[in-house]
Amino acid sequence: MADRRVGAPQAMFGDDFFDRIHVAPQVLNLGNVSSVQQRAVRVWNAYRARALTLTDAALSDGEGIVLTAPGTPPLPFAPMSERTWQIAVGTDGPPVISATLSFRFDGFAAIPVVITGQRIVAWAFVPDWSRGVLERLAWKTDILTSPAQVEQRRGLRSAPRRSFEATMIVDGRERMLLDLAVFGWGGRTWALPIWPDVQWLSNEHALGVRVIACDPSHRDFRVGGLVQLRGKTAFDVEVAEVEAIGGASITLRHPTTKAWPRGTRLYPVRTARLAEPPKVTRLTDQAASVRARFDVVEACEWPVITDAPMYRGYPVLTQRPDETESLSNGWQRALLTLDNEFGRPFVLDPADWAAVSQAHAWRMHGRVERANVRSWLYTLRGRQAAVWRPTHADDLVLVANVAGTATAMDVANVGLARFAGLRPGRRDVRIELRDGQAFHRRITAAVALDDDVERLTVDAALGVDLRTRDVLRISFLVLSRGDSDEAEIEHHTDSDGAADASIVLRAVRDPDTDTPIPV
Is the pTM of this model over 0.70? Predict the structure, then answer.
């Protein structure tokens, strides 16, 4: 009797790939469309022995989209043949792109190609730098505070809201271009150039290039983001998408559509909306001054500080503040008052502690300094995170030499032992030497020897012999957070990164251990 076996056919590569219709891609996500985008859709008859007929290739909701077909239906498709449709999506049309290209073959269901994206308009007008550009960063923090003034802080935004405000002087054709653009498309999303990060191309770039020679460091370029190339006027502009960033160049996802000469402005771009209608001041019948404020609509990330010295788990803000203008200091107490309006009010200080506040200002020269200050702002995250802030003042004066193994030091009597009581904010010090060294120590005991001298005991020896003439200054260290969730950077120039920024830092109660307060 013959041996009978039962089996099942096993699908092979050919069964999955051939004898069907392939359309690629079936989803075209164009992202932000700020200039004409060209895409190709390929249709392949993968039947090995069957000819097909395309009866229709229809585009629905395709306003502003141009479809170029290889022929007019009905189109014959021989076995194993392929045809290509070209799709061009321009900036004219609805703000939201949601179209469908449907291929219909005789005897088959329709095969859809979904086209999505968002049309944005390039803001091609340059600011009047005599008035500067104001940049705002706004975080949001939820703070729970105990009667003892211990805080639990929670950030409600993963990235800050960002806005720019500037004045533009426009005349001639550019004045009418701005007027009509805001009139017609003022409610749309704009491709906003980050004006303070501008640079000028040092080489000519021919039509159709993808690599732009530039310096992307310390600027707001990012992979997947946009850049703007601008010529001499607002009519000569192109927006492109970044595919890769190198040390001395950026690579675009698609070739440029114009030739760009030496001296062309290159900006990183963020998508933004007008926060309010621009304010226009008529200068002459041909010129106008326009004040506009934009709110960026995408998340703006930036690296935090990573190279700052650490003390008890927190970074130390070692950079001295700019003191060309007066800086404010103050104390904040959470006093509880009971007043029946008849007798004397009863006032209670449950925390028995004052939160010291101090303004800190930066004057930045160059993009490296500006990037560093921005990293500090992103480290603070508004009111959420804490850093050690030296007072950067001569708070204590050393009056006797200190051995490298000693933990006691004599300083001029300022009332530390009598008034401060080793409370947070007045129990940590930064000792700066004239040779550039700096030490951070906690005061564990303080006693007044006489009216002129106090003896302090710190938690660890310095490890170096200290002479009075070696000390530049001894400042108190205060664990502090931002007093506001908003910060402003005032940019003065577009060439060298000159800018100003200032914040107010408020003391928080630090723990007695090296473990940071949970935030």
Answer: yes
